[in-house]
Design brief:
It is a single chain. By secondary structure, the protein is mainly beta. The protein has one helix and 16 strands. It has one helix at about 1-25, and strands at about 35-40, 40-50, 55-60, 65-70, 75-80, 90-95, 100-105, 115-120, 125-135, 140-145, 150-155, 165-170, 180, 180-185, 190-200, 200-210. β8 (about 115-120) and β9 (about 125-135) form a beta hairpin. The chain starts with a helix and ends in a 6-residue tail after the last strand.
């Protein structure tokens, strides 16, 4: 009888020990390294060193590709990415592993913003405003569009910041939207010089406007 009691107690002890080990194995260990990360719709292989939910990721050839905050092992918040010379090429905003919000790229030589755009990642679509800049930091190009809208509005600028052209394009093709509606052209002093009416990429009406010089 005594031996039976000892055996039962031993089984009970082992069972409790196994449950404790299972519980410990289920507990999430602190993340210290990631070897594969999804960034800009691409999976990168390399080494990501993690400390306090902040990752610095190096590609397989040894250069730092990006760094930013993590949430449950996924990029979350502003992420900065780098060129092979160690310079910051741009930044993207992430929400739990997906690009969402404002993205910025920088001109390597001048340090000024090169493009500013808004991304809502559903295949990486660019929604809202897209802005491109000259090397001196002045605005060069502005586009307002949404993936679910038929028309795209664009504005081009001279290097001195004056509006050069305003266009409306119809999104019949994602890669080559055609001019549709009125386009307005301006001289370098900002005066309107020409207006053109397009229909599906073809000119319907065209008016040249003579501006008196100041």
């Amino acid at each position: 009888m005594r031996n039976i009691i000892i055996i039962l107690l031993s089984i009970l002890f082992l069972s409790c020990g196994n449950k404790s080990q299972q519980k410990q194995s289920k507990e999430q260990k602190p993340l210290t390294r990631i070897d594969t990360v999804r960034f800009e719709n691409t999976y990168y292989l390399g080494t990501g060193f993690v400390k306090d939910d902040f990752i610095t990721f190096y590609t397989k050839d040894g250069f730092k590709r990006f760094e930013g905050a993590l949430k449950e092992g996924k990029l979350n918040g502003i992420v900065y990415y780098f060129g092979k010379q160690g310079n910051i090429e741009g930044s993207l905003n992430y929400e739990f592993g997906h690009q969402k919000g404002i993205g910025v790229t920088y001109d390597i030589e001048s340090g000024f913003a090169k493009t500013i755009l808004k991304i809502d990642e559903d295949g990486g679509t660019k929604n809202g405003l897209v802005m491109k800049f000259n090397k001196n930091g002045t605005l060069n190009y502005l586009k307002d569009h949404s993936s679910d809208e038929l028309y795209i509005q664009t504005v081009k600028f001279y290097e001195n910041g004056v509006i050069k052209q305003i266009n409306s394009r119809k999104r019949d093709s994602i890669y080559s939207p055609k001019l549709d509606g009125w386009s307005f052209l301006f001289d370098e002093k900002g005066r309107i010089s020409e207006k053109i009416l397009y229909s599906n990429g073809e000119i319907v009406e065209e008016y040249k406007i003579n501006s008196t010089s100041n």
